[in-house]
């Protein structure tokens, strides 16, 4: 007889493991199936190991500027294998944390690649062939890196983000195709390691989804650090030869015939492909759109007892979105199954999703840009506060960048925030809280922020939007 559960979750990334724990908290008997290590891309090959690498890079940059702080530190250079080892160790520690949490919540775990056998049965065709029956399912299988046509990943010369974070030595030269958050973070890391980095973006700005002023500031700061940044440029005709790669670059500010670029390695970060193949999804009636699983606002698929969360159901492809969708799906299932636990369901606000890029300077944003808000008919107030005017940033010797907020002039509603500079990824939650709790610009401007902190720039930005900034 197959084992039977209230809920089976497929994939133990930040979507799946969080959904499983929330469901267990709500009294469900839960099984989770993972083909690899718990923690998914985020903990093993995404958010966490990249931040560990960037921390090493940031420390090295700091040491290079130590003299300015009155500290004598000559000849600091990266010990690359140790940097990689440390990043792997940090990922391992986080993945073991997920192991602990799943055990603590008494979630039954199965290892293998799951596929649907029928509407209520999952099986593991590649390994134990075991069958699992469940009343509800949550698919949380994530996504993987997209290849450049004609240039499959080989882990040596043609890199995905995964292979780029475990190289054995620092490459002399690296072409990064795609300047979204992943491309930009690797550009920062390898440039600091001493690699000659070329960052190419097809659209007309790096971090294309960010506020134009923020992206332009970042581009200038990258160029100053020796990174070659090409926007409005396409990459074609890839050729692998003698362990190197040659491509044709064509577009803005390049000769009409293009430029041939030869590099030691190419990192392709042009987007993701959902992990929704080989699971018999369409065969059992689950509707896909461009490979992503289509769901309603409760994460229910076209099959009513099967839910889908995280990267596999489409953008925004972010760990915190996957986790919150996991919580919401577990709660929706609990309500649907007649055990509401006093919960009432309200859908997530996708207009208030924080997004951060952990390059140096850091980038953080939420909500509407000035342009979008104006296009939507708002009469906007914009408040901006530069880190040059922040006492804390001055003391840190890190004054590049600004915090900027967009508010509705009539009601004071907080519409968005766009930041670049030291620690901004830690400043963003103040605005996220403001938007979620429907605070006004005045609510934040009249809150006491401790002095001297970087967070004062957020308060000052809101004051500036109201025409009441003191320190500008
Ligand atoms: C280099 C990089 C850096 C990133 N940095 C950030 C960041 O700083 N902040 C941020 O918010 N996001 C970041 N992301 C994105 C983030 O990692 C993803 O949004 C997040 O991991 C999605 O979570 P998920 O649970 O949907 O999927 P995943 O984390 O991909 O987990 C899916 C899990 O399902 C398993 N699985 C797949 N198919 C099956 C199957 N058939 N059977 C059993 N198991 C299966 C996989 O092995 C995997 O463990 C980054 C991504 C990358 C690649």
TrEMBL record:
Subcellular location: Cytoplasm
Required co-factors: FAD
InterPro entries for the chain: Class-I_Pyr_Nuc-Dis_Oxidored, FAD/NAD-bd_sf, FAD/NAD-binding_dom, FAD/NAD-linked_Rdtase_dimer_sf, Lipoamide_DH, Pyr_nuc-diS_OxRdtase, Pyr_nucl-diS_OxRdtase_dimer, Pyr_OxRdtase_I_AS
Domain Pyridine nucleotide-disulphide oxidoreductase dimerisation: 353-460
Residues that hold NAD(+) according to the record: 178-185, 201, 271
A single cellular component GO annotation: cytoplasm
Cited Pfam families: Pyr_redox_2, Pyr_redox_dim
Keywords assigned: Cytoplasm, Disulfide bond, FAD, Flavoprotein, NAD, Nucleotide-binding, Oxidoreductase, Redox-active center
Biological process terms in GO annotation: 2-oxoglutarate metabolic process
Signal peptide bounds: none
Catalytic activity entry: N(6)-[(R)-dihydrolipoyl]-L-lysyl-[protein] + NAD(+) = N(6)-[(R)-lipoyl]-L-lysyl-[protein] + NADH + H(+)
Residues annotated to bind FAD: 51, 311
Residue ranges constituting the FAD/NAD(P)-binding domain according to the UniProt record: 5-326
Disulphide bonds in the chain: 42-47
Gene Ontology terms, MF aspect: dihydrolipoyl dehydrogenase (NADH) activity; flavin adenine dinucleotide binding
Domain of life from the UniProt record: Bacteria
Transmembrane stretches, start-end: none
Cofactor note: Binds 1 FAD per subunit.
This enzyme's EC code(s): 1.8.1.4
Primary localization class, coarse: cytoplasm
Family note: Belongs to the class-I pyridine nucleotide-disulfide oxidoreductase family.
Further details from the record: The active site is a redox-active disulfide bond.
Name of this chain's protein: Dihydrolipoyl dehydrogenase
Organism listed in the record: Leptospira gomenensis
Gene name for this UniProt entry: lpdA
């Amino acid at each position: 007889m197959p084992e039977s559960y209230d809920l089976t979750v497929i994939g133990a990334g930040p979507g799946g493991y969080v959904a499983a724990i929330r469901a267990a908290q709500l009294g469900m008997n839960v099984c989770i199936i993972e083909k690899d290590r718990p923690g998914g891309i985020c903990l093993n090959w995404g958010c966490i190991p990249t931040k560990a690498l960037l921390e090493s890079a940031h420390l090295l940059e700091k040491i290079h500027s130590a003299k300015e702080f009155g500290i004598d530190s000559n000849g600091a250079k990266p010990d690359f294998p140790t940097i990689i080892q440390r990043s792997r160790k940090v990922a391992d520690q986080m993945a073991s944390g997920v192991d602990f949490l799943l055990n603590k919540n008494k979630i039954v775990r199965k290892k293998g690649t799951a596929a649907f056998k029928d509407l209520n049965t999952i099986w593991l065709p590649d390994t134990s062939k075991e069958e699992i029956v469940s009343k509800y399912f949550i698919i949380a299988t994530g996504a993987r890196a997209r290849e450049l046509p004609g240039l499959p990943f080989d882990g040596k010369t043609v890199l995905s983000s995964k292979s780029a974070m475990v190289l054995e030595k620092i490459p002399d030269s690296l072409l990064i195709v795609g300047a979204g958050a992943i491309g930009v973070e690797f550009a920062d890391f390898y440039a600091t390691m001493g690699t000659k980095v070329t960052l190419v973006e097809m659209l007309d700005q790096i971090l294309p989804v960010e506020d134009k002023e923020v992206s332009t500031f970042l581009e200038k700061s990258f160029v100053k650090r020796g990174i070659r940044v090409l926007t409005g440029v396409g990459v074609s005709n890839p050729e692998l030869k003698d362990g190197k790669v040659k491509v044709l670059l064509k577009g803005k500010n390049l000769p009409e015939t293009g430029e041939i670029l030869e590099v030691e390695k190419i990192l392709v970060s042009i987007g993701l492909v959902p992990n929704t193949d080989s699971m018999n999804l369409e065969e059992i009636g689950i509707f896909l759109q461009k490979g992503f699983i289509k769901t309603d606002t409760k994460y229910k698929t076209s099959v009513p007892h099967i839910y889908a969360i995280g990267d596999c159901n489409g953008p925004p492809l972010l760990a915190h979105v996957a986790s919150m969708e996991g919580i919401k799906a577990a709660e929706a299932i609990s309500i649907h199954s007649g055990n509401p636990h006093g919960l009432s369901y309200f859908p997530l606000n996708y207009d208030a999703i924080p997004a951060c890029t952990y390059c140096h300077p850091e980038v953080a944003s939420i909500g509407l840009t000035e342009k979008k808000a104006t296009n939507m008919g708002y009469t906007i107030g914009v408040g901006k506060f530069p880190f040059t005017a922040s006492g804390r940033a001055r003391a840190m010797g890190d004054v590049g960048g600004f915090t900027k907020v967009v508010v509705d002039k009539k009601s004071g509603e907080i519409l968005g925030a766009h930041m670049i500079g030291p620690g901004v990824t830690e400043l963003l939650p103040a605005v996220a809280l403001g938007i979620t709790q429907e605070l006004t610009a005045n609510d934040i401007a009249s809150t006491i922020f401790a002095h001297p902190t970087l967070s004062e720039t957020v308060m000052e930005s809101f004051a500036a939007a109201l025409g009441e900034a003191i320190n500008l």
